[in-house]
């Protein structure tokens, strides 16, 4: 893996860019969220930064409520 991808600052910048609404041109708008979820599962180095960005801006409590046990 390239050295630049081992720097957390660079990873966070890239992942925030992926999650920007202007990048998600498809209807539905959650392409960035799906991409971040896939990146979190890709490797251990991407796991924490991707989840931080993914869960960083929640506009509705629905995702958190779905995480609670029934």
How would you describe what is shown here?
By secondary structure, the protein is mainly alpha-helical. The protein is built from 4 helices and no strands. The chain has helices spanning 8-18, 31-42, 44-56, 62-67. α1 (8-18) packs across α3 and α2 (31-42) runs antiparallel to α3. The longest helix is centred in the last third of the chain and has 13 residues, at 44-56. The radius of gyration is 13 Å and the shape is globular. The termini are far apart.
Radius of gyration: 13 Å
The major pleated sheet works out as: none
Distance between the termini: 41 Å
- Percent of residues in helices: 55-70%
Helices and strands, in N-to-C order? Answer: HHHH
Percent range for β-strand residues: under 5%
Extended strand count? 0
Low-confidence residue ranges: none
Structural class: mainly alpha
Global morphology:
globular
Q: If helices are DSSP runs of H or I spanning 4 or more residues, what is the number of helices?
A: 4
- Mean pLDDT across residues: 84
Summarize the structure.
The protein is mostly helical. It has helices spanning 8-18, 31-42, 44-56, 62-67.
Could you list some keywords that capture this structure?
70 residues; mainly alpha
């Amino acid at each position: 893996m390239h050295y630049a991808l081992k720097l957390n600052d660079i990873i966070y910048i890239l992942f925030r860019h992926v999650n920007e609404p202007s990048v998600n041109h498809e209807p539905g708008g959650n392409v960035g969220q799906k991409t971040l979820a896939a990146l979190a599962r890709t490797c251990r180095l991407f796991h924490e930064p991707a989840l931080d960005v993914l869960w960083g801006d929640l506009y509705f409590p629905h995702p958190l409520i779905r995480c609670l046990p029934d």
